[in-house]
Amino acid sequence: MSIASRGFGAAGAMAVLLTTSACGFFGSTGSTPPHVTEDQLVGHWRGDCGATMDVRGDHSFTVKDFAVEFEGAGTKPRLVSADGTWRLSRAIENVRPQELVLDLKDKVHRLPVGGESENVVLDLVVGDPDYAYECAFKAEPAT
Question: Is the pTM of this model over 0.70?
């Protein structure tokens, strides 16, 4: 076997692996993330990790116990309570969903929009993707 054919075999195997990984990443269930408007993001959000987030119509927000750093298994995330500004990013078909982008203490945090249009979920993932700290935020009804 020549070096060129070995290289092609390795490249072909990598292409299959990437294709398989991408299918898993984009969801093999056929469900697509919901499309949301800025108005749908305004309100009080509670994370399953205990964090809260108040997103306001003037593009400001406040978070409490929001994870900004995570060193990995066996450690606790660094939590902050602070104010910042936000924006909604556009989705790129088959690449990334819309994201709530938070500018918080000179660092950007991207929370992909998931769930269903009636039950939107904002996912916070902090740290190494293999050992990440995750928190799913759901909107709480106005009282």
Answer: yes
Of 63, 4, 70, 45, the closest CA to residue 142 belongs to: 45
CA distance 60 to 102: 9
Tell me if 52 sits within 8 A of 63, measured CB to CB. yes
The DSSP secondary-structure symbol of 130 reads G
pLDDT-derived band at 119 (thresholds 50, 70, 90) equals very high
Name the residue among 139, 79, 85, 131 with its Cα closest to residue 113. Answer: 139
Q: Which residue has the tokens 């929009």?
A: 113
Question: Which tokens in the block code for residue 11?
Answer: 């490249």
Residues 6+ apart with CB under 8 A from 118: none
> Is 19 strand, coil or helix?
helix
